[in-house]
Amino acid sequence: MTSVMSTVETKPAAGAPMVELRGVHKFFGENHVLKGIDLSVGRGQVVALIGPSGSGKSTILRSINMLEQIEAGEIYVDGQRMGYRADAQGELHDLTEKQIAAQRRHIGMVFQRFNLFPHMTVIENIELSPKLTQRRHGPALRTEAMELLAKVGLSEKADAYPAQLSGGQQQRVAIARALALNPDLMLFDEPTSALDPELVGDVLHVIRDLAESGMTMLIVTHEIGFARTIADQVLFMDQGIIQEQGTPDEVIGHPKEQRTRDFLSKVL
Amino acid sequence: MLRKPTQRDGVDFIRSRPVRHLGRIIAAVVLIYLAVCLIDGMRTNSNYHWDVVGQYLFDVRIMRSLVWTLVLTVISMALGIVLAVILSLMRESRNPVNSSVANIWIWFFRGTPVYTQLLFWGLFAVLYPKFTLGLPFGGATFLSVDTQQFYNAAVAAILGLGLNESAYLAEIFRAGFQSIPKGQMEAADALGLPRRQAMWRIILPQAMRVIIPPTGNEAIGMLKTTSLVLAVPFTLEITYVTNAIANRLYLPIPLLLVAAIWYLLITSILMVGQYFLEKKFGKGVAV
């Protein structure tokens, strides 16, 4: 129970998985969207979630950083229980908004619709969270933000506003912004679904670089080919349940479940 | 009118005769005729008493009343804005007491005439001669002062105008906040920004774009609503003062013109201010 009791600052035991879900359930009203999800992602692992729309893939991602509140189960990131702390009697308490914000800073998230802040320039978007949460500013921060921007290949766009960028460029800025707090984990929620086909490649390239640098990542994607080459593990989800999981070769190459085969035959 | 280019890079552009809109031309001529008549009439009609207008336009009493009008407008508007921000936050509260109080407040102040409210605030000191803070049902008293000590016609006027305004502004602010896509707050949450910072740095600056134009309207409306504070009665603002002078001179028209000129001038200045505010908060909008 120590990990449950630990507060935000406590370091977990080495070797613990970066992300762990145990029996996670989520309801939207009457709609039971996650039906007992168990999932473990090791450090540096890349996990791709595939499956039809409405299967609950995005909800898993959004539950991990508490954009959605789960009704049952436990979620741990880096050994810490997300959203709750247990007291000495083992009773659960909600974390405060401040504590939740602190937990989220270990997790970077990239959205389907980018969600850049339109009234700020590219560099301001990237610098915002270190500025506000780590009280950093000045040339050191600027250098770091510019390095991130260079990483996603957009150094020359530092002073542009999001509306002046293409969708693919905006998504790469969003990735740089998510990396600005040095997260331990990155969540990608259909990062290329809103993009014109010719812009998808640049974004996937950036994600691939990130995977190769050893970042732990969960990616919800419809790009089956991409999932196959980048992921260490592929999960196929349908109707709120992980129907099949394994290496890309197992799940995409030689699916055992009929549902998986049906889905893959439609999208491949 | 600017002539269209006839060719570029060796390409001849289409040349064609534009359609003549006879109706538009006739309407324009009629309007010009009427405008000339109006201006000429105002110039030659001696009942306007332009000499009296000139004489009183910068009169010291008028200047003083102008300052009071501006003071009422600015302070009431500021009070309205502060209250409206609180109200729109209360309405979003998950605590039903907070949201209900806000809703009842808005219901009451939007549902009664501002003139009635001003009359009420004028009678406040009669209604509550002593202002006492304590526990209800005859419990302990923490504070007790004569209402007259802090309450006068100016305070009544500002309360009347500001509280009424807060109800309208709360609606405007809510519309502004609701216009921001949900993804903005989610992005701020995902970055681990504290709620207050997210509101202040992400949501509010974007909502301002939606909030400023109608709030500018409200500010202009407030300027003119100050003319109603004689209900309190507060007698130092420009409508009351010009009216009093007019009654003494038996010349209502020129003094009305004096007031109208000043209202127009201030409204114009407010509109310029609004233009610059809109420009400041329009950053990053797709062109």
Q: How would you summarize the topology of this molecule?
A:
The complex is a heterodimer of chains A (268) and B (287).
Chain A: H1 2-5, E1 19-28, E2 31-41, E3 46-50, H2 57-64, E4 72-77, E5 80-81, E6 84-86, E7 92-94, H3 97-104, E8 107-110, H4 122-134, H5 139-151, H6 167-179, E9 185-189, H7 197-212, E10 216-220, H8 224-230, E11 233-238, E12 241-246, H9 248-253, H10 258-267
Parallel strand pairs in A: 3-10, 3-11, 8-9, 9-10
Antiparallel strand pairs in A: 1-2, 1-4, 4-5, 6-7, 11-12
Helix pairs in contact in A: 4-5, 4-6, 5-6, 6-7
Chain B: E1 7-8, E2 11-12, H1 22-44, H2 50-57, H3 60-92, H4 96-111, H5 114-122, H6 124-127, E3 130-134, E4 141-146, H7 147-150, H8 153-178, H9 182-190, H10 195-225, H11 238-249, H12 252-281
Antiparallel strand pairs in B: 1-2, 3-4
Structure description:
Chain A has 268 residues and is an alpha/beta fold. Chain A contains 10 helices and 12 strands. Chain A has helices spanning 2-5, 57-64, 97-104, 122-134, 139-151, 167-179, 197-212, 224-230, 248-253, 258-267, and strands at 19-28, 31-41, 46-50, 72-77, 80-81, 84-86, 92-94, 107-110, 185-189, 216-220, 233-238, 241-246. In chain A, the strands form 3 sheets. Chain A has a 6-stranded mixed beta sheet with strand order 8-9-10-3-11-12, sandwiched between helices. Chain A has a 4-stranded antiparallel beta sheet with strand order 2-1-4-5. In chain A, helix 4 crosses helix 5 and helix 6 (167-179) runs parallel beside helix 7. The longest helix of chain A has 16 residues, at 197-212. The relative contact order of chain A is 0.16. The two termini of chain B are 26 Å apart. The mean pLDDT of chain B is 91. In chain B, helix 5 runs antiparallel to helix 8 (153-178), helix 9 runs antiparallel to helix 10 and helix 11 runs antiparallel to helix 12 (252-281). Chain B contains 12 helices and 4 strands, in the order E-E-H-H-H-H-H-H-E-E-H-H-H-H-H-H. Chain B has a domain at 75-236: MetI-like (MetI-like fold). In chain B, the strands form 2 sheets. A two-stranded antiparallel sheet of chain B has the order 1-2. Chain B has helices at residues 22-44, 50-57, 60-92, 96-111, 114-122, 124-127, 147-150, 153-178, 182-190, 195-225, 238-249, 252-281, and strands at 7-8, 11-12, 130-134, 141-146. With 287 residues, chain B is mainly alpha-helical. The chains are: A alpha/beta (268), B mainly alpha (287). The A-B interface holds A 65-67, 97-98, 101-105, 107-109, 111, 113, 115-121, 128-129, 132-133, 161-163, 177-178, 181 and B 181, 183-184, 186-187, 189-195, 197, 201-202, 205-206, 281, 283-287.
